[in-house]
Design brief:
Length: about 350
Amino acid sequence: MSWEENVRKVVPYVPGEQPKIKNIIKLNTNENPYSPSPLVYKAFKETDLDDYRKYPDPTCSELVDSIAEYYGVKKENVFVGVGSDDVLSMAFLTFFNSDKPILFPDITYSFYDVWADLYRIPYKQIPLKDDFTIEPLDYYAENGGIVIANPNAPTGVKMPLSEIEDIIRSNKEVVVIIDEAYVDFGAESALPLINKYDNLLVVRTYSKSRSLAGLRIGYAFGCEKLIKYLLDSKFSFNSYTMNMPSLRLGAAAMKDKEYFEETVAKVVATREKFKISLKELGFEFADSATNFVFARHPQKSGKEIFEYLRANGIIVRRFDKPRIGEYLRISIGTDEEMDKLVSALKEFL
Ligand code: PMP
């Protein structure tokens, strides 16, 4: 017998490319085109490197307190992690421990099935409707837990909060995770429901709307008991998931409400303008409530457009998967970047 038979094998998630080439237009991983808040720069400059001799605060109190204050919840309702990937992974490990399958859509964040495989969680992927919306009735079946991204990725489609609430209410014996990575760009958050349903975990990130993908900060809201269980897992895994810069700079970013709202509004305005241009060029797409648009052209293959853009210094994302292979997921950049993209698409067509 070889040692390899005892290896925990998994087919990993493949993140979008982070190219080293300069002067490209990077619209492939839904980063924010605007810089982090000036308060983040200030906190960075005031950092004393000698502090790094010590371990960071394992309770992450500076960051947790800033998030609790911003959203008007108790610190006991907040969990933080190394990006929402870390928060979600910890939540899968903690809450999905049943023999029954967890449920999530067939087209959604492609890390969910990877974590389920990694942790040996049975799962069932439920087809989205043809218009990429979720059928709530599909989530009333017996299950070991539910995870739904709202708005969904890579489709960009949002679900009304009333439908989300119905799913949470109908599944009180399991934990329902709502992944709100993109919620700030146009969907209604389930956050107000955490006091009503103790089986609800709402997951957020600094990577998109707060312009800090590089710091890797994610967070989650839930009732005290749910958060306590997450902390038990975290402290059984790694006490110091969050490094000192993330704790400090993340807290600084959370204090700048005005800048946050201003940059989100700019991204949303660019998105709406971009939708009009895409329509004029004949692209088809479901209405996006995120900082990206998921579009296909009825006459051109997704692969062809992708490769043309890439050859012209514009990187978008394409998933070589059933149902969505012809689509491109295009992150919203600055107005200038989107204008260049539209010109390139015009030339191609
Ligand atoms: N959820 C969804 C739906 C996402 O698209 C992403 C971004 N890849 C994440 C979670 C994870 O983002 P992060 O780890 O940067 O917070």
